[in-house]
Amino acid sequence: EYVASQEKILDAASNILAVANEVESAKLNQKIFNDPARGPFLKEINLNSIKPYDRTLGTPTDPEILKKREAIREMTKHAWDGYEKYAWTFNELRPISKKGHSQSIFGSAKTGATIIDAMDTLYLMGFEEEFDRARTWLRDEFKFNSATDVSVFETNIRFIGGLESLFYLTGDRMYIEKAKDIASALLPAFDTPTTLPMALLNPSTGKKKNYQWANAGCSVLSEVGTLHMEFATLTHLTSDDRFLEKVIDVRDFLDKMERPDNRIWYNYINPSSGAFGSSKTASVGALVILFMNIF
Question: Theoretical Cys-Cys bridge with 247: which of 184, 231, 254, 258, CB 3.0 to 4.6 Å?
Fold first, then answer.
């Protein structure tokens, strides 16, 4: 009888504990969903609800505006034709020498940075044949396999951001899949003691480092703080929490880090120690302005 009574007590205590855990879990989930940095990106999205954007919407009737629009299309066509003729699949075109160029912030491989960066413009301007050729290359031939370092920041805003934009413009899920592949390849950049990402990553080896010019190998504030929108959106579109959690870890660390009494943000931050760089330089230029846009 004693043993039976003790078992009943333990069962009751276990049930109470389970209920308490459920309550705490519910509170935590509610807190997460109410967090503007997390919540909107954790809500389910019906991917089938994204329909191709009608680029004829808002077409002006003013002849002068139409004339200017057509002039801009002509300039875009001239630039695209030059790239397609002389530098197809290279990251960039050298317009004077008319040669392709891939030794840059996008790495040494022919990953078509110009193609991915320009596809949304081709779509919006109605260059259907050019867009279709670009899409076919992206679907069948694109590989994110540079044997040299790529910029995590530039790859994020131009490749991942560009592909996400293409999905929202077209509803084509292929763009989400490509964005996820690239973002997954960038994840080792966040493997630091502070979770702050390094600036450069070799996609083939997973090795990472920072620019030596950046205050003796610090990370640039603008770069570590400007990944949130694209990575969070990727979680929203794929339900893969890895991407949102990486940028939330960065955000949480920056929210809690020690700052000077004047609360200023300096340009450089050490991803190992979490301290600002020794230069204590602050600006409102490229090294920090994109960070301010997000935070």
Answer: 231
Tokens 């969903």 sit at which residue? 33
Report the C-alpha gap between 72 and 26 in whole angstroms. Answer: 53
- Is pTM beyond 0.90? Reply is no
Query: What integer is the mean pLDDT of 233-241?
Result: 93
Task: Decide: helix, strand or coil at residue 96.
Answer: coil
Please state whether beta strands 92-94 and 99-101 pair in parallel, antiparallel, or not at all (unpaired). Answer: antiparallel
Residue 176 and residue 163 in contact, taking contact as beta carbons nearer than 8 Å: yes
The torsion angles phi and psi of 270, rounded to 5 degrees, stand at -85, 120
| Pair 246, 233: CB distance under 8 Å | no
Instruction: Look at residue 48 in the predicted model and tell me its pLDDT.
Output: 86
Alpha carbon distance 165, 149 (integer Å)? 25
Cα–Cα separations (whole angstroms), residue 113 to 146, 151, 158: 12, 12, 7
pLDDT of 25 higher than 60: no
Q: Are 219 and 270 in contact (CB under 8 A)?
A: yes
pLDDT of 90 over the 90 cut? yes
pLDDT of residue 1: 64
User: If 0-12 CB within 10 Å is exposed, 13-18 middle and 19+ buried, where does residue 119 land?
Assistant: buried
Half-sphere exposure of 228 (CA within 13 A, CB side): 21
**CA 123, 226, 46, 178 torsion-angle sign:** positive
Higher pLDDT, 112 or 31: 112
